[in-house]
Amino acid sequence: MPRVEIAPGNYRDGGPCPDLLDLARDRFADDGVRGDLTVTSGALDAFERGLAARLEPGDTVAVEEPTWSNGRDLLLSAGYQVTPVAIDGEGPLPDELAAALAGGAKAFILTSRGQNPTGAAVSAERAAALREVITRHSDVFVIEDDHWGELSQVPLHFVADAADRWMFVRSVSKPYGPNLRCALVAADADTKARVQGRMQIGHGWVSRILQHFVIAAWTDETVEECVAAAGRVYAERQGALREALAVRGIDVWGRSGLNVWVPVADETAAVVGLRDARFAVAPGRAYSFHGHQGIRVSTARLDPSLAEAVADAVAQSSGPASPPI
């Protein structure tokens, strides 16, 4: 990575770095994302500020089921009501979203790619169907999380701007490291102004030092090659386990990201059985509003040569179960 030159900071020049916004604008445009841009201290910071700018405690948010546990905890701790929207391997189910919005949900949060815990990714067909639903409820506030971003081996199919009020969030944590505490946000003009305004009355702005490190990473060919290689490795590891499970009659959705989700009859028994086989997995209830039984298997560090052994252990420990939809 090249040496990062940073001028002494001051309060007058704080805020999003123009050079970073220019780079983000080009990157987003390549994926069909256009809007006003700002910078937040990671994805959850963007979610919290966006929701606080648009909603009141007690308002209802439509959320994927199963969903990212940190996002779920944020919503519940802030006092929002939650309506789960079932998903499959192509993302949220349009009929479920339509029911949630008709039932009064004022916001909708979805994951573009690498959905945690399932590994689902929104397909072109599903994006079009979701956009149609959102267009009929254009007053809903839509947050789209593309945390997998540069690591993804599948294309982005953008959904959020089907609404009048929207926010698209791409964290740098997965590709470049969580210590950067930085996310790039595209939004409609009013939402962007509200999010940035809320930052100004709090901690002010994301450190310019961190922003310049993101610029350095984004403009370094060696770093770009490393991230691309990492994306291919992660896809190979996830694919190896998905294929091994399929041979054993276990279909999972994961085609992007770091995880696969396996519905089970008894998640405690499954977790213990896999532990006894010397494999650690996460119990599913931390990711479910309905308490569906399941396990999240992380493939981030899985040696593909072990995929068969892991699949055997999952098959022996999981038992029959219905998918969580």
Automatic annotation (TrEMBL):
Claim: Transferase is one of the keywords in the record: yes
Cofactor (UniProt): pyridoxal 5'-phosphate
Membrane-spanning residues: none
The keyword Transferase belongs to this UniProt entry's keyword annotation: yes
Keywords: Aminotransferase, Pyridoxal phosphate, Transferase
GO molecular function: transaminase activity
Name of this protein: Aminotransferase class I/II-fold pyridoxal phosphate-dependent enzyme
